[in-house]
What does this fold into?
Amino acid sequence: MALEKKKIRIIVRSAVAVVYLLLAVCMFVTGRSHTVLIDNHAAEDGSYKAIKSMTVTVNHNPPSEFMKGDRDKFTVKGQKLVIKVQSFDGSIDAVYTLKIPLAEDSVIVSVPRLAAGLDGAMEHFDMN
It folds into this structure.
C-alpha cells in the first residue's frame, strides 16, 4: 500500500512539473516582443514600385498613414503579424498574415513587395 502511494505521488509530481514546463514555454512564445519596421520604398531594380499613399494597421495598433518612401516602427507581441493595407486611391485593400521567426528581434516588411505578391517581403533587420 505504501509503495502504491509513492508511485502515485511520483506520477502526480511529474505531471505537475510537465505542466509547469509547458506553461513556461507557452508564456515565452506568446509574450516575446518583436520590433517590426514597415517600409514603403520602391525596389532598386524596378521590380515593384512604392505605394503613393496608404494607411497600414499592424496587429491591434492604430492605423498609420504612409507616403511613398516612408518607414515606421512598431512593437508586436507574439509571432503572428497581421498587416492591413488600404491605399488612398482604393487600388489596394488587403490583409496579410505573416509569422515572425522566434529568434528574430527585429524584421523589416516591404508593403509594396507584399502587395506585388513577391516572396521575401519580410527580412531580418539589424537595429545596431
Summary: The CA atoms of residues 68 and 91 lie 15 Å apart. The helical segments are 2-31, 111-115. The longest strand covers residues 80-87.
